[in-house]
Inverse folding.
């Protein structure tokens, strides 16, 4: 379940990234995006500033430096609460990213290095109770992963190396 949640979040980010890589014209700001570079409307000059846009009811906002996503990246729910918050460097996810429930509580947080999960990741139930904790190394689960029930009781403890279960600890 947790792996599926992370996979869904990564797919969401991939779709956002992919949509910004295609040759397109942004209706709201009329920025032209070619080969992952965002240009000022009607010019061949890279855009600098904060890009804001909407896709269906999802609102996006990210910083752009010399035409590339560089700095803060945010996705908002229709109620304007933050859904995803992180940093970009050279069009790639970097540093700590946070994912939120629509009620504003933290759903998960973890680190990216060069666009792949790397380091400690934590997941929470919507009431802020810890759900799962583990570490990624170069995009693969690689540590002791602990899963808790909604009351905070440890329900699973599994050693995973290179995305493969090595040992399930009896509880």
């Amino acid at each position: 379940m947790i792996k599926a949640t992370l996979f869904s979040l990564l797919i969401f980010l991939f779709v956002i990234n992919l949509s910004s890589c295609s040759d397109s014209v942004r209706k709201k700001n009329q920025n032209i995006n070619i080969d992952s570079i965002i240009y000022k409307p009607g010019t061949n000059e890279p855009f600098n500033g904060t890009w804001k846009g909407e896709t269906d009811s999802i609102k996006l906002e990210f910083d752009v430096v010399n035409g590339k996503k560089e700095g803060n990246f945010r996705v908002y729910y229709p109620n304007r609460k933050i859904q995803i918050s992180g940093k970009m460097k050279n069009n790639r996810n970097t540093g700590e990213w946070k994912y939120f429930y629509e009620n504003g509580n933290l759903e998960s947080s973890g680190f990216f290095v060069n666009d792949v999960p790397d380091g400690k990741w934590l997941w929470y139930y919507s009431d802020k109770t810890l759900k799962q904790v583990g570490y990624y190394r170069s995009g693969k689960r690689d540590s002791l992963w602990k899963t808790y029930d909604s009351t905070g009781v440890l329900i699973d403890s599994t050693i995973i190396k290179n995305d493969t279960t090595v040992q399930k600890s009896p509880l």
Notes: Helices lie at 2-21. Residues 2-21 form the longest helix (20 residues).
